[in-house]
Amino acid sequence: MGAEPRECVPERPVGRRRVDWRQWAPLTLLTLAVLVGAGLWLAGLPEAAQLVWAAVTLVALLPATWSTLRQVWRRQFGVDVIAVLALFGTLLVREYLAGAVIAVMVATGQALEDYAQRRASRDLRALLERAPRQARRRTPDGGIEVVPLDQVAVGDRLVVGPGDVVPVDGTVEEAATLDESTVTGESQLVTRSAGEQVVSGVVNAGAGFGLRAGKSAAESTYAGIVRLAEEATAHKAPMVRLADRYAAAFVPFTLVLAGLAWLLSGQFLRAVAVLVVATPCPLLLATPIAIVSGLSRVARRGVLVRDGGSLELLGRARTLLMDKTGTLTTGRPRAAETVVAPGGDRDEVLRLAASVEQLSPHVFAAALVRQAREQGLPLAEPADVTEEPGRGVTGRVDGRLVRVGQLTGEPPEWARRVHERAEMAGRSTVWVSEDRTPLGAILLEDPVRPDARRTVRRLREAGLRRLIMVTGDRSETARQVAQAVGVDDVIAQCSPQEKVTRVREESGRAITVMVGDGVNDAPALAAAHVGVAMGATGATASADVADAVLTVDRLDRLADAVDIARYARRIAVQSATVGMGLAVVAMIAAAAGGLPPVAGAFLQEGIDVLVILNALRALGGGLRRRDVPPETRKLLDRYAGEHGGVRDVLTRLRDTADLVATRPDALECVPALRDVHRRLVDEVLPHEAAEERHLYPALAGPLGSDDATSTMSRAHVEIHRLMNRIGGHLAQHPDGRLRREEVPDLLAALYGLDAVLRLHLAQEEEDYFSLNPTYAPEG
Question: Does 323 participate in catalysis according to the annotation?
C-alpha cells in the first residue's frame, strides 16, 4: 500500500495560492506612469511630465467611458459617471496631474472590486482543487484497486490512506484521526471511533483506515459543496455595491453643485474641481474591502457564501425561516428510552434488536446499533435475516426468532400504554418481539440540537426580528421543538409548496433567510433572498440552490455569519458615509474657489487612505461570542464524555422509581434503592463536584460573567439535597422493607431527582458544551 500513488490527495497544498499579477497590472502601470511624470517634473521637464499625465488620464478615461455607456444602455446609473466627467474635465482644463491622480484612484477601486469578486469564490475554488477524483476499494479477493470516484457504490469497503481526502460519506471501520478544518473550519484534529459516521471532504491526519461507503459520491456531502463551487466559479454574480444606492442622490447633487459653481463664477475650472473631489472612490473602495473581509471571515467559520451580494443581504436580513428536521434538530434518530414488558430485561431487549438490525440500511437501525454499542452490549451475528419494507426486520439471534419493527396482533395493556406515552412525547416506537410476543419497545426521538436555543438568542441579538419554524412534521411534535428553541411562530404539516408560499409571503415584507437541509427544502431555499443549506448533513440538492452553505454541522455558525455580515456591512456604510461627508465638504470648498483640481485630487487620496484603514476593521470584531480557550475545550470534552455515564445512572434511577411506585412491598425495592443510591454517590456526585471546582470557573470568560453559572450551581445543591433525602430513607430500613406511609415522600425524591438531573444535563449541553466547536451530542 505504501508504494501506491495517493490519488485522493491534491497535488499542491490548498493554502498556497499564486498571485495573479495581471489583475494588478493596470493599477501598477498607471502608478508607475504617474511617478515617471513626477520625476520628469522634478528634472525640469514640465512639458514631458504633463504629456505623461495626460496620457495616463486618457488611458483611464477610455475604458471608464465605455463601461459607463454600457451601464446607461442597460438602464443602470451609478457613481462611475462622476469619475468619467472628472477625467474628461481635467483634460479640458489641462489639469493633467489631477486627472492622473483620479486615474490611479479609479484603477485602485476597480482592482479592489475585481479582487473582491475573485475572493468571493476563492474558498469555493479551493474546495474544487482538493476534491478527490479516485478512491481505493477493497476487492473480494482481499486486494485493493483504484477506481474512479463515480464507481463507488453504497456498501463498498474503501481504504483511506494517510493524507487522503475521504472520498464519500461513510462509516469508519477502525479509529481514525481526521483534519476537518477545510470543511468545518475547526483547526483541532478530531478522532472518530469505529462505527462513527464521517463526511466526505475531510482529510485523514493519521494512519490509514477502512471506510464503509454510506452514500455514492454524487450523493455525498462534499459533492454538493463542489457543485456550489463550480457554479460560483462559472457564474459569478455581480457584487451588489452600496455605491450605486447612493448614486440616486449623490450624482444629481454633484452635477448641480458643479453647474452652480460654473454658472455663478463663470469659471469652468471650479466645476472640474468639484467633480475631482466628488470622485466616489470612498464608495468604490469601502464596499469591496469590507465585503471581502466578511467573505473571508465567514468562510473560516465554516460558512461558504456564494458572493458579496448574498453576504450583504444576509447582513440586512430581518426574517428567518428554519426547517425543523436536520436544522433545529440533529436529523438523526436517537434511542431515547427502552421500555420492556413486566419482568423483562432492558439491556437484553436492546441487544436483541441491535443484533438483528446490524445489516439493515434503515436510519432507525443505525440508531439502535449505535445505542447498544455505546452501552457496551455484546451484539450477536444474526441469521436468516429478512426485511419487509415498512414492516420491519426478522432474524435469529442466539436461536431466538426476533422481529424488530411494527407490532402485529392485539397489543397487551402495557404495550398500549407505551404507545400512548410515545405519541404524547412525539417519539417513534420500534417494537421488539419474539415469536409474535412483544418483549419491549425502543422509543426513538430526533433530539433538538444542543446549540439551537443559544443560536436563536444570538440571531435575535444580531437583528433578526422574526424567527419562524416550518416543518412537515406533526403539530404536537413541532410545537414541542418550537418551545424548546424559542422561535416566534411554527407552521406544522407544511408541504414543500407551502414552504415556498410562506417564504414568498415573508420575503414581501422584509429581507428573508431560509435555512434547510433536505431535498424538500430546495425550492424554499431558492425562493428566499438568502438560502442557507446545512451542507454538512449531506443535503446536496439544497446546497445546489443555496446562496450559502454551512459546511460544519453546527447551527451556531449561522449566527456567526449573520454577526460578521452585519458588521462588514456596517463598516462599509460607515466608511462610505464618512468618506462622502468629507468629500461634500471638499466639494463646497472647491465650488467656492478654495480648492483647485490638483489639491482636490490629493485631498481625495487622503480621504481614500482614511476609508481603506477604516474598512480594514472588518477583518476583525463584530462577533457576539467569545472563542473558548483550548484548556476550557478540554474540560468541556471531559465532562461531556461523562454525561453518558450519568444518563445510565438516570435510567436505573427511573426504573427504581417505577418499581417503588408499582410494587412498594416487593423485597427487591430496598436493594434496588441501595444500588442506585450507591451509584449516585459514587458516580454522579463526584462529576457534579468536579464541574463546580474546575469547569464553571473556566467558563466565566467565554460566558462573559462570573455569575453566568450561578443557576447551575444552585441545581447542584438541589441534586445533593435530593440524594441525601433518598439516603435518609434507606438509613431507616435495616430490615429491607419499605413502609407504605413513606412511599409518597420517597417517590417525590426519586422522580424529583430524575427530573432535576435530566434538566440539568440538558442545560449544561445547551449552554456550556455547545460552546465547544467540536462538541457532538450523543446520537
Answer: yes
